[in-house]
Each structure stands twice: as C-alpha cells, then as structure tokens.
Amino acid sequence: MFFIGAVATLVTVAPFLLGTTPFPTYMFGLSMLMAVGFVVAGAGVLQSIAAGRRQARAGTPSGR
Predict the structure, then answer these.
(1) Contact 34/18 with Cβ under 8 angstroms?
(2) DSSP secondary structure string for all residues of 14-41
(3) pLDDT tens, 8-62?
C-alpha cells in the first residue's frame, strides 16, 4: 500500500517539476495511500508489541 502511494506521489508531483499539465484530482487521493500504508504498518507494530507483552505476562514460551 505504501509503495503504491509513493509511486502515485511521484507521478503526481512530476508534472509540477516538468512544467506539464497536472494529473487529475484522483491521483492526489491515490498518493494518500502512502500515509495509509504508514498507519497500517504502525498498527501492526503496536499489535505485535501488545501480543508480546500479553505473552510475557502469561509466562508462556515464545515458541522457539
């Protein structure tokens, strides 16, 4: 998701740097996928930390 947003951001900014006609407005919306990708990754990290803490409190081995 982040990479799609990053590519959309590059594609959206390129016309401004090259002096050509800007892309349609929906491309700006696609570039927001970069931020959504960061949020999803952050939620995954927090969920993993919470699971590790729960497991440590329960005293169960980590599966190694």
Answers:
(1) no
(2) HHHHHTSPPPPTHHHHHHTHHHHHHHHH
(3) 888 888 888 888 888 878 878 888 888 888 899 999 999 999 999 998 888 866 6
